[in-house]
Amino acid sequence: MIGTILLILNYPQNDILKILDKTVNLLKPGFEVIVWSSSSIKRYQIDNQHYKRSIIDNNVKGVLINTNKYETGMQSNFIFHENTQRDIIVSLEGPLGEDFGVFLDKIQNVCHTDPPPRELSIDSKNHCLSFVCYEHDPKKAKVASFSSYRPLFMSQNQDKILLTTSPEIVSALGIEAYEIPPNSLVFWPSNKQSLPESATKRRIHASKHFMKNEIHETPYTLKRVYAFRNHKTIKTAAEIITNSKRIYVIGNGSSLNAGLGLQYLLPELDISGISAFEFLLYQLPSLEKGHTIIAITQSGSTWDVIEAVEKGKKAGANIISITNNPLGKIREYSDVTIPILAGYELAIPATKSFTNTLAILHLLASQVKAELGILTTKEREEKLLAISTFADKVPNLLHHHEKWAQNTAKELCDLKGGYIISAGITYPVAIEGALKLKEVAYSHAEPIELEEYLHGPSAALSKEMYNIVISPYERAGRERFLQQLEKFHNNIGKFVVIGGTSEEYEKLENISIAEIKQKDPILYALTSTLLIQLLSYWLGIYRKTPIDFPKGLSKAVVE
């Protein structure tokens, strides 16, 4: 889940414990928690594996949980002592900028202003955050909440309040809740509630599969990336890359697949994408001072990535880490740590973390190009703004292609496997797509570069196999594909094309087409990523596989 804040206020001890028992496994890898009674406030850092019910005593009045520090590496919970009787507790989630101290002051003022303001002025281009503020005052307790980019969910029964950023938590509890739209500043004094007219009360139903929920979190994760674009870590990393003699991008699995994309985003530089283990075997001896390792690891603790950066650091290399766990071990060896900002993935197959890694690399590449004078500041901003605009369109994109994914998955269900083919910037997406089809649907998919397909692999095709082609973004690649179209279409059980337009394939039968009309290369790659994730999910559904927990796999390979 992404950026989870959970407030539980004025519930009896047993009810709070029941709520936490049902939700604590969703709060990975850990969380900050503030617990208060009428006479004290206590705060804890909780590793998800070592949660103890004893932190909730029988005098408890409220609990405030936040996972943001484990996602961004940034302090996210604050307690301000106003006087001997009153404290203000603020819990934030999102990629907080260097100026968030000013915003903290604004939140405090909002919380104890009476009457409360009707709205909150926030620069949505530079801030992507949610907050819950609790005024701890025995005479007049008050709660205020706001999100600039996502809905909040609130359940209230008399003076009992449950408020969260997570629809999965509400779904797990099986309760009705108000869905509060973004940019709504809402207050709950002890004697009344203030809700916008657009707030709707309903029972929230999240998918039973974490993978599906995580694909649908992509709009929020991409919004976080855009808000992070001017963070000092991006500029520092870009300066290191610009001044490097040679750059290695290392990782494993989905992290490596995303990392391969940097070669296409920065063709001006000498960049090699290689698995961390192969790097240890062959590249480590040639490492020099002035070389840079960009290490991508979702867990922050992948064993060969850690070993590579540890030895690389000793050899004098610069280390830039990109991770979904900025508090992980890799931070010890890194000159710069960039958070992926996707939130923890409960499903083993990576979805939103892969998508966000591509977006982070695009953000980094655009800053490098600005440093090199290839892009002006205005051009860079326009390119990155396109990510935020795209994020707004993702819900409709997923909804529009749901039927396509379902119908195509049905037609692939009984085929034994096949090829997933592309070239250019979508070739790493094809490699990742093949991994998703194997992990999620147990379908043996082999990724092949478009021209390499014509040099032998096509001989192995049969009516029991499929070809999935992500039509290349680059004009020369797309023209080559269309020129040899019949060789990709003939003698197979099903032909699937992601990208291009229906007119290009109108003479073909036994074909499933998902059009992509994006003109920007990174948006084209992100769209094809979402479509192959959706297709993999539905193929797993029809093949009745354990989608979230493929056999023999774990989320992190740490030894």
Characterization of the model:
The protein is an alpha/beta fold. It has a domain at 5-206: 4-Layer Sandwich (Glutamine Phosphoribosylpyrophosphate, subunit 1, domain 1). It contains 18 helices and 23 strands. An 8-stranded antiparallel sheet has the order 3-2-4-1-10-9-11-13. Helix 8 runs antiparallel to helix 14 (427-441).
Span between N and C termini? 26 Å
Uncertain ranges: none
- The CATH homologous superfamily name of the domain at 5-206 equals Aminohydrolase, N-terminal nucleophile (Ntn) domain
Give me the Rg, rounded. 25 Å
Count of DSSP helices? Answer: 18
Question: What is the name of the CATH class of the domain at 5-206?
Answer: Alpha Beta
Shape annotation? globular
CATH architecture of the domain at 5-206: 4-Layer Sandwich
Largest sheet: 8 strands, antiparallel
Q: Could you name the CATH topology of the domain at 5-206?
A: Glutamine Phosphoribosylpyrophosphate, subunit 1, domain 1
The average pLDDT value, as a whole number, equals 91
Strand percent estimate: 15-25%
> In order across it, which strands form the biggest sheet?
3-2-4-1-10-9-11-13
Structural class: alpha/beta
Number of strands: 23
Helical fraction: 25-40%
